[in-house]
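[step 3/7] fold_predict: job queued, chain A
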Amino acid sequence: MYPSTLTQLARANPFSAPLFSFQKVEELQQTPNGQRTRTLAAAAATEEISCDFGSSKYYALCGFGGILSCGLTHTAVVPLDLVKCRLQVSPEKYQSIGKGFAVTLKEDGVRGLARGWAPTFIGYSMQGLCKFGFYEVFKIFYSDLIGEENTYLWRTSLYLAASASAEFFADIALAPMEAVKVRIQTKPGYARTLRECVPKMYAEEGVWAFYKGVVPLWMRQIPYTMMKFSCFERTVELLYKNVVPKPRAECSKSEQLVVTFVAGYIAGVFCAIVSHPADSVVSVLNKESGSTATQVLKKLGPKGVWKGLVARIIMIGTLTALQWFIYDSVKVYFRLPRPPPPEMPESLKKKLGLTE
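[step 4/7] structure written:
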């Protein structure tokens, strides 16, 4: 049996990983020969784990999960992303999703739909590394600052703050390859490959060519990521509370991953909506040399910034669901800490008079 206070702490945890770092509890056991042996048990988990929460190994594996979840999924939907970008920057030519695919296939063939896959894979792998890795870092850091009870009461605000902080750095890592990807996809005849595009952009505009879209990226990605993480965390909590007919502890790993996928898709729909206007600005900005975000925003107008929204909802909803599914699968595979949904700490229940 584990100490009751640590068991309560595990139950009260509001995160998708334990609130504080695991502590090892030494238990004395007596063998048939009368000798005493020591065994080590994780204080905040009932299943075997491969590393302590908050350890270097934990962060490294979370970052690896982020690389897989973002790099693979964004690369898989390159054809849809290509049509979406072209619809944003040339709406008079492509008009709709169906027309966009038809025109692209007619002009570039099937291979044309994969244009920009290399910068997409590299850029979003780097972004995933920072997004998920730093989210875990900032989540622990902020929770330690405000304490256990405030962490539960203000958990949504904590999710928002941790995800925004992580995405700030993730977008700096993403910006160069995002600029290259959009230039390849939306400027016909400019360049067909990553190796051809990078030196050409550098020769024309210098290093600024790769980072001029970082501010619009922050405008797009920070609200997107705040919604992605906070909506996912709270949706998982609500699903287990109101939809799933049994406690999470009684669900198999496969059933838990299904809940993860559903919560991820719901979060993805909201992500697409809140971040789409900035996404339109980024697409046009990276296509046109010498433009600023303000100029592009005035050019597009209130209606223009919403072009391609349906395609982006389909793309981002699927992407977000798959990303959370892959990320959670990595945690399962490597046996990383994965506690149940949050419950009110016992100390807070006593303060509120909810316990005798």
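[step 5/7] annotate
Confidence is low (pLDDT under 50) at residues 1-46.
The CA atoms of residues 60 and 180 lie 28 Å apart.
exit 0
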